[in-house]
Amino acid sequence: TTSTCISAASYADEWGAFVREGGANYLLDTGSAVSVVRASGPTGTASELACARLGAMDRAARVALPPEVAGILGWDFLTAAAKEYVHVDCAKGFLWIDQEPLGGYHLGESSQSCAFRHAQIAGGFLPVADAALYGVSCVEGATAVIDTGSPVSIASISLASGAALFEETEGSETPPLVTTGADGKATQLEARIAAGLRLGTGADFTQQRIFVGDLPMAAACGIAPSEPFLLVGMDVLGGVMTIDLRTMTLHLLGGRPIQPIYIPH
Fold first, then answer.
1. Looking at residue 166, what DSSP letter applies?
2. Using CA atoms, how far apart are residues 12 and 26, in angstroms rounded to an integer?
3. 8 near 233, Cβ under 8 Å?
4. pLDDT tens-digit profile of 44-81?
5. How many CB atoms lie within 10 A of CB 220?
6. DSSP state of 126
7. In the chain, which ranges are continuous DSSP H helix?
8. Distance (Å, rounded) from C-alpha 39 to C-alpha 69?
9. How confident is residue 265, by pLDDT bands cut at 50, 70 and 90?
């Protein structure tokens, strides 16, 4: 069994899942195939211990990270221990990884589930699901990356155009966001409104804000610019979830952070 403190944090004016270890902040990022730690960190720091806890340190690269983020705990971190269940609770503040499901959490009326699979990319794997996006029209069969490292959900330009997403209400528009990928390239994102979003066959969300832009991650997953691609962030995933690695099912139990910490960004 592995458990550690996890918190919700203000991140790009939204919020994301951060592991707190030894006074440092580590982004819990299922949208990263590999774990990374801050390049300037000396051997034996909490950043390395956090990765080594699940045996992922031997694959953790040292890269330049923003000063407020000590490292990124990627999909390899969550799957390296050969456990079957990963439970994330940003509200109560912990991350639990074990062979057995965590007691006290049940699928209720507000919970939703979807199947996911592994998509192989350079350096590892990412969790992806089938998705459908609804606007004036509907686009089905989109590839959706489950990304706890992103505070917002992002649709490719082809997906947003095909679904004909709605403009935000005049006077309440969300300012554009600029995201920078691991390759250093910046992408400007414009906000739109989706009438509906479906993950798999059983997780439905209505009136969802979606940012629009073409991300390098799509190409890394082998998705052509003309093919529908979606990154599903914490604004859709919510603050409490169980990842069942045995059945490859994501259970979204809802919830939002109670007392989020603040990380400048």
1. B
2. 15
3. no
4. 444 454 454 444 444 556 666 767 777 788 898 888 76
5. 18
6. E
7. 46-52, 75-79, 157-163, 216-220, 234-237
8. 11
9. very low
